[in-house]
Request: fold
Amino acid sequence: MRHRARTGLALTLVLASAAAAAGCSTTTDRSSDRTAHGAPAARTAVTSCGSPLSFDGPPKRTVALDQASTETLLELGLQDRMAGTANLKTKIPAQYQDAYAKVPVIAPKIATGEQLRAATPDFVVAGSTDLYTKDRAGTREELGALGVPAFVSAVDCPQQNEPGKSPFELLFSDYEALGKVFGAEERAAALAREQRAAVAKAGESAAGTARDGKQPTVVYLYSVFNGMPYVAGRTGLPSEMSRIVGAKNAFDDVEEDWPEVSWEEVAKRNPDFIVIGDLSERGRPGDSAAEKRRAMAEDPVVSKLAAVRDNRIVEVPGIELDPSVRSVHALGLLAAGMKDLGYVR
Reply:
């Protein structure tokens, strides 16, 4: 506990000198920097989760604190601007593996302040605010005071990023903000455009899903831990996925991303179909799709549900049910699965 209590102070003392060595002080002149397209770098500013961030030029030593942020940066072709990655949950997709191999892994799990400062970052990116705490990477305020901007996905703080925007639109705004920071606006805009088209395609048949004036209901089974199911609540991305494809998340009344519930409660909701998140690569007990199917088949109540009995089940990669550059793929699988199950006319 004593070691953790000193983390914020250690981060302040050591990262300050590291930031200066890496050229990340806000007083450093980077007018000689050039973007990937060869144009002179200009000072840029973006707002992230309510905090203004400014840059004298494209960051050179970015650290991504989670896999979602890492894959977004790799998709934007920014691996040469990365000094570290952390918190890998599953295998990196084949299309990113060569680029990922160039990025140092500063921590296999959640990075600490010590691990972050050792990477001498000039920019830090994360998918959620809970990675920026004193006993983890350090607070955003601590990092900002040292001239190290700390970015958080807009999806994690929707009320501070144009309330009313959909989670997917907030995700696309991340691409555009990061593109601006790194001088990669064209690539970021192309990615956002491509994924907007994928969202629109998934929603094309949504109007035909309702039967007798009722939308089909769905339960998203993310994991099973100690025999208990974890499902998608109202604040998770699956609720927005459901809306897009014309379904209704059966646990939309729970104000959490992935609440723990009971099998009895799943049975009470009696969903028309079930989406299983396959987390086989994570490797924890109850993570694989096969284990989740077995848990439902063995439960005396859930096994009697029509969705289980009639195999009205759609499998998607579990990691894609959380906001990331991969999420539109899961959305497409959901739309295709509903079509296969006969919910799309």
